[in-house]
Amino acid sequence: MAIVVRLDVMLALRKVRSKDLAAHLGITEANVSLLKSGKVKGVRFETLERICEFLACQPGDLLEYVPDAGPGARG
Amino acid sequence: MKILANTLRAGALAAAIGGLATAAAAMVTPQFHDVFGFLAVSVDADVANLPAWIRVPAIAAPAACFAYAMWQLARLLQFVARGEVFSAPAAGYLRACGLWLLITTLTGTLLPFVLQALNVWLTHPAHAEFGLTMSSQEVWNIFISAIFMLVARVLSDAYRIAEDNRQII
User: Fold this and answer.
1) How is chain B split into domains, by residue range?
2) Chain Cα centroid distance, residue A20
3) pLDDT reported for residue B102
4) Phi first, then psi: what are they for A32, rounded to 5°?
5) Buried b vs exposed e over A17-50: b needs ≥16 C-beta within 10 Å?
6) Which value does ipTM take for this structure?
7) N or C: fewer beta carbons within 10 Å in chain A?
């Protein structure tokens, strides 16, 4: 996946627990966990806005584009 | 919703059992349609007077297909009663129900024709002339089956969209 979620890094930097973020977003901890691991198909702007508000960060701090390694990049 | 689904489920199971019982009675009693005329809606008078080797499969095959279609409908309604309308199994059962209703209609129309044609061809090959007729009721049944299959397709798409939506946080 070319888009990497850095939510776990931001949570560690801000010393915020997943449980507190989940409570602020109004979603379950399981969904926060899925979001942290990047195992979701998408993030709503509304969710992103609330995460940025809670962690006092920018969307770019949470998401990073990492190009997939092409066939030529292997061995 | 749950009460309605469970009531319809009981109706589907009753229809499956009733269909099989009616077919069994019609196979045992060739003049069944005269005795229990109001029940023997699916037993053609022409088929009832034919030899057993034609009558039995011509009655049993559509009845079995119809019972299986009703069984699939009952399983679908079980999911609906649980509130799992937009699920892959529910869409699968609805599709299977439509398909087996279609097979029921086609079997009920084509199988007696094929068997009777075979009978004529075996007994009077020189005078073998065949004609296939389809009643408006059978055309209507095919239409209903196609509608069931289309709704199943819509349900399947709805499930996919709901699943996609569930994975967007």
Assistant:
1) 2-168
2) 15
3) 92
4) -65, -40
5) ebeebbeebebeeebbebbbeeebeebeeebeeb
6) 0.71
7) C
